[in-house]
Structure formats: C-alpha cells, structure tokens
Amino acid sequence: MSHRIVIVGGGAGGLELATRLGRTLGKRGKAQVTLVDANLTHIWKPLLHEVAAGSLNSSEDELNYVAQAKWNHFEFQLGRLSGLDRASKRIQLAATLDEQGRELVPARTLGYDSLVIAIGSTTNDFGTVGAAQNCIFLDTREQAERFHRQLLNHYLRAHAGQQSDEQISVAIVGAGATGVELAAELHHAAHELAAYGLNRIQPQNMRITLIEAGPRVLPALPERISGPVHRTLEKLGVRVMTGAAVSEVMADGLKTAAGEHIPASLKVWAAGIRAPALLKNLDGLESNRINQLLVRPTLQTTLDDDIFAFGDCAACPLGDGSERNVPPRAQAAHQQASLLAKAFALRLEGKPLPEYRYQDYGSLISLSRFSAIGNLMGNLMGSVKLEGWLARMFYISLYRMHQMALYGRFRTVLLMLSDRLGRSTEPRLKLH
C-alpha cells in the first residue's frame, strides 16, 4: 500500500501542496494524497475584501476541489476536522449537514501515514464585548458575501425611498492589510453603485471609519509604506483613527476605550488572528496562546514526526535568533507548501528533511482603483518602494502566481483572457 498523505485544509497553502504532491507522488503511484476541507470550493483569502465590496464575483473566481483533485491525481474528502488519534494514526471528521440540517456526509475517520494540518486562522476579537454578535468577520467567502448583501440592501432600501440625502456608516476595526484594502474598496463601490443609478446614497455619504489600536495603519509594515497609505485614505474621505482601542460593539456602533461613540450600521472586525480552537491540545500536541501548533523548522510538530503543520495555524520559528515566529502571510504559506512538496519526496526515500527559512519578498497594498503601494525585497535589489500603476500590476501578479501554481501556465493565461473579456459584458460591481 502506498504512503497515505492526508492534508487537512484547502486554503492557499493546503490546496497548493495537494496539487503539487498529486502531480508528482500521486501521479507516479508513490503516495495516496488526500485533501480534506469543509467546503466544496476554494477562493483565495486575500480577495475576500473584494467579495465583500462586490468588486469580485466569488462564484466566477472559485475553484472546485473535486475537479482539481481529478485533474491533479489526488483525492478530495468533504469534512471538517473534529479530532485526532495519534496512537492509531487516524483523524475524525464531523458529519456534514445540508441547508436543511439533514446529514449529507456522515461522521467518519480517516487513516494516515503522514498528516499535514493547514486549516488557517480566524479573526481574533480579543473577547471584546459585543464583537462576535454585532460584527462581521472576513474569514470565509460566506461572511464576505453576507457583508455584501447587507451593503447592497442598504442601497436598495434607500433607492426605494423618497429622501435623496440618505447615509450609510461603516466601521472597520483593524487597519492591517484587510482593513485598509476594504476601506478603499468600499469607497470605490460607493462610486460604482451611484453610477448604476443607486444614487440616493451619494459617494460622499458613505461614512467609512477605520479604527486601529496601534499608533499607525499597517503596523506590520514599514512606516514609509503606512504613511502614504494613511494620507491616501484620508484623501478618499475615510476617517482614520489610530491609537483607538475598541472596548465595546453595539448594534448601532462602537465605543472606544476613551469613551467615544462611533455610529455604524455596518461593522467589520479585521484585527488580529488566532488558529481554530480545535488545535488547542489536539491529542496532546503543543500549541501557543493563539492556538497555533508548535512546529520545528522542518514543519513537523514538536511532539510527533508524522504530523506537519504550516501556514497561519502553525507557529514556526523565524530562525533569526529571536523568539519571533514566521508571520501569518500568504507568501509564507506558499513558501512552506513548496518546501513540503520537496520534503515528502525525500521522506519517502528515508532522507533528512529540509528546514524552512522565511524569505520576506516585501508587501503590496491595494487601494482599489485609486492606487497601490508597497515594497519589494530581494538579494540583488534590496528593498524597492513601489507606488501607483506599477505597484498595482505587481499586486495583481500575486494572484496570478497563485493561479499558476494550481492551474499551470496555459490555463492561467486562458483565465486572464476570460477575465479581460468578461469586463466588457458584465457590471463592474456585483449588484445582487
């Protein structure tokens, strides 16, 4: 029987790893590769802010796991991880229910020889009073679509009314990449909605407030990047509040630690991450305070050589002599997936596994059609700051690189052509 590799989590990293292993080990019969995910389709998580604003139609950019498995010589299993038995080397999958609550796929177990956990992260509301009840998070496609429906409903109600000075207020907690990009995308959406005739709410009457507890926007990036982004957002009419921690979220708005009330009919929480609670003490595996599994530089968990973890759900040492871990970024998950694809080929041959070293190639922030800014880093060119059209092209190329890893060059080129043609026949904004 060939070596059984089970990958739990079909996000960017897990799906890329399953595809790579299927094309190599699976196609040659050297391993049986199985991908497990609770959904039937995949969408690149960095695009969820565009889904929320309506700039991206998720049904057109989604990837079907069943089809991807057929094309790339791996197996797909629908299910959500619910437990682990390391002694018998089996994982437990919870039952999957349909829209009516009826059992679609029963609970079951799945055996493995090597297990890879790549279930990503969720937003961390830090226990803030009312956040879970009154905010929308952008962890999944369903949440992003829910926000878009609520936004569109505000415009439709206003369009059916008699007043011409309607307003809508949006509060975004967290000025990291997601919060900043969502704020700019919503400003763009306001102009597009008005252009399509839903103009009882004028663009200047969409009041967007971006709230950050830290001293500046994009706290994880250099100040030479965050400064211009802050100024651009203010030019767009976004109210940017830094040094403002949110202490409570109510149905009609937010309250800061300083006591200020910020009215908001739509509220998004985009501050902080944590791994799913399931990983905390998962059959004795070590985890940290935000539930990430502790792994060694080989990406093997500290207590079990047969279990690997990577991406946002893993705490991997940065390897620079500090106590810091690899940052939870898409480029880290991509690098780790590439390393594991090589590592499993070596593992099956009984050879030592390579160790992961994070390479920071810079960051790019999209401000919708208005601008983009970021820095690219490399051994030859050092750190280069990019702005405007060139930065926007590099930002778009990140998604195309993700598509290329999944589809190959030829199909990615066809997708690019399809996207270009679709722009001339479809609305610029999703209006349903």
From TrEMBL:
Looking at the record, the residues that make up the FAD/NAD(P)-binding domain are 4-337
Superkingdom of origin organism: Bacteria
Q: Does the keyword Chaperone apply?
A: no
Which cofactor(s) does the record list?
FAD
Record keywords: FAD, Flavoprotein, Oxidoreductase
Xref: InterPro entries: FAD/NAD-bd_sf (IPR036188), FAD/NAD-binding_dom (IPR023753), NADH-Q_oxidoreductase (IPR051169)
Enumerate the SUPFAM superfamilies for this protein.
Answer: FAD/NAD(P)-binding domain (SSF51905)
Which Pfam families does this one have? Pyr_redox_2
Q: Which PANTHER family match?
A: 64 KDA MITOCHONDRIAL NADH DEHYDROGENASE (EUROFUNG), APOPTOSIS-INDUCING FACTOR 1
Stated family = Belongs to the NADH dehydrogenase family.
Q: Specify the protein name.
A: NAD(P)/FAD-dependent oxidoreductase
Organism, by scientific name, is: Pseudomonas schmalbachii
Q: What is the lineage of its organism?
A: Bacteria, Pseudomonadati, Pseudomonadota, Gammaproteobacteria, Pseudomonadales
